[in-house]
Amino acid sequence: MVKRKSRDFFSRSDDKQKRKHEATSVAPSLKKFLLTLRQQLGRLMEGKVLRQGDSPLLVSSYLSVYKGLAGSDGESIGNCPFSQRLFMILWLKGVVFNVTTVDLKRKPADLQNLAPGTHPPFITFNGEVKTDVNKIEEFLEDVLCPPKFIKLGARHPESNTAGMDIFAKFSAFIKNSKPDANEALERGLLKTLQKLDEYLRSPLPDEIDHNSTEDVKVSKRKFLDGDEMTLADCNLLPKLHIVKVVAKKHRGFDIPKEMTAIWKYLNVAYTREEFTNTCPSDKEIEIAYGDVAKRLVK
């Protein structure tokens, strides 16, 4: 039996209509989540539906919760930074979407046929399947565009590449099982984190008043490209949060407190519904990495 329940996640001060995200539970033994943005994707804030040609948009995404791991309630958002990246984009643009949980052992045939052999998240439009997250991001930014939707692209190209090596260094660090290699891998991760911290500290060009006698040495901005989230933040923040949670759990590694710009960046993100309401719990992240993180074996 399918159980449906509605939850109000947020209200927008600039829109009197309350926006709802429906969570649909299909089975208690769920291992992954399917996000479906059926005809509601592209719904404008005044209630219209955005169409391109004759076909509404359909976006599907599985949020991974690895099977057989105790502690998952089968309903919470699972760990998948790529899916969260898309969720954040849609949330920032004000799109209304439904969350449907699916037991993959009994996955409906229409979903199996929708994009066979592909790894979610994916998007289909007019029969074409897009599986590359970067291409999906470009597609959403192109279709959900001004004046009805805000533009999320970064103004400064450097913001798009800030922190881009962190997740790869983290993965190498956490998957390593050789104690002799641990120190070097940790240094590699620290180096990339330091580089991000320096970028967040450095004032952007538009923070510097060349007509002023005051020398701006430290940036006051909240996010990578300014005081508002951009596509760059949607990409980096989910990964950076995973690094913080998993490295602490499995390696006893903390992002150094001296990296104050990174901590400011994370703490500001934790106050934003676009991040917190699309982010899995720390417990779910730890569960997801239970079989990924390797123990150091002497």
UniProtKB/TrEMBL annotation:
PROSITE patterns given in the database record: GST_CTER
Chief localisation class: other
Segments of skewed composition (Basic and acidic residues): 7-17
Entry superkingdom: Eukaryota
Catalytic activity, reaction form: iodide(out) = iodide(in); chloride(in) = chloride(out); nitrate(in) = nitrate(out); choline(out) = choline(in)
Function: In the soluble state, catalyzes glutaredoxin-like thiol disulfide exchange reactions with reduced glutathione as electron donor. Can insert into membranes and form voltage-dependent multi-ion conductive channels. Membrane insertion seems to be redox-regulated and may occur only under oxidizing conditions. Has alternate cellular functions like a potential role in angiogenesis or in maintaining apical-basolateral membrane polarity during mitosis and cytokinesis. Could also promote endothelial cell proliferation and regulate endothelial morphogenesis (tubulogenesis).
UniProt-recorded name of the protein: Chloride intracellular channel protein
Species: Scophthalmus maximus (Turbot)
